[in-house]
Amino acid sequence: MLSLSAGHLETARRTLDPAVWDYYQAGSGEETTLREAEAAWRAYRLRPRVLRDVSSVDLTTQLLGTTVESPFVVAPMAFHALAHPDGECATVAGTGKAGCLSVVSTRASRTLEDIGVAATGPWWFQAYVMRDRGLTEALVQRAAAAGARAVVLTVDTPYVGRKHKVSGVRIAVPDDQFLVNLAQHLLPGAIGREAAEQDPSMTPDVIRRLAEVGGLPVLVKGVLRGDEAERCLEAGAAGVIVSNHGGRQLDRAVPSALALPEVLEAVDGRAPVLVDGGVRTGVDALVALTLGAAAVLVGRPVLWALASEGADGVTAALEALGADLRHVMAVAGAAGIGDLDPSMVTGALRPP
Ligand code: FNR
């Protein structure tokens, strides 16, 4: 792991409430999927090019029409105020300064309107479809009005995965930070009840519906199979995010590093395919991008950075990842994201 991330991780471990630390780190079940995520990236091998002019490396790329200076994207994660008093406002401020895009969770601890004002760069809104569909639609409309440029619909969570590490532990999210974006649409006391739970009956028609309601492209997050990616595209998805939710949903789900090629093959260039789970270094990102991912999302390391140094920590962490990627791209013979292609990577070894 990069030394900066390791430093942030140690600071976060020392300073966070132990219950919050466990909540951030936890995976579901026996944490098999969580454990395998990083190793699965390491199982690929690169085939570098030589004698290319790599005296300057440019990480600029396009994501659904938005230009970003770096292909690292902040993954949607709940309750950033547990890591820092400014919560998601600090995260989006720090992310934009690093030239990156962030995805803001339905479970953010700051309002979408405040986050929109604090953002220094582009952001997308992550939607959970709740049993009260009107609630989800209202959030998507508010996110669009606050400046979100796309909706990320998370589909791997019909029910929240069981995390034994934190089962029965109450994380003290102060009332003014708990699902603040839902609060204003619900009667007092209704939060946590049925209306705000994920709707386990959700089907692909919701993709087009949310696109219409928000007037924004919808990417589907939590896809691990080619045929499912195909279903999402048929139902109107503008992009797909290969993810097993950081090992927090179905334990023993396939590592996203291994699922990515199958999804890319099925999508066949029709829409951007992003990926997350265990991306910790420039070379992890390089593998994903050479396989054909449009960008990589990073989860927990952003929370460690936020807990350690607030917005500046988030900027520093994303810049360090960018610098690492720039370095390994140069050594692999690529001067820009457009120079990366699957001939530069060879098949996964069996993960340990
Ligand atoms: C998440 N993740 C997540 N995903 C999502 O779509 N909505 C959410 O609210 C959350 N919340 C959340 C909380 C915490 C504490 C974590 C660690 C993760 C999953 C997240 O978007 C992403 O898929 C993984 O975190 C990526 O894996 P890494 O980078 O953490 O290994």
Automatic annotation (TrEMBL):
Cofactors required: FMN
CDD domains according to UniProt: alpha_hydroxyacid_oxid_FMN
InterPro entries (alphabetical): Aldolase_TIM, Alpha-hydoxy_acid_DH_FMN, FMN-dep_DH, FMN_HAD, FMN_hydac_DH_AS
Pfam families from the UniProt entry: FMN_dh (PF01070)
Domain FMN hydroxy acid dehydrogenase: 1-350
GO molecular function, one term: oxidoreductase activity
EC number from the UniProt entry: 1.-.-.-
Keywords recorded for this protein, A-Z: Flavoprotein, FMN, Oxidoreductase
Family per record: Belongs to the FMN-dependent alpha-hydroxy acid dehydrogenase family.
Protein's name in the database: Alpha-hydroxy acid oxidase
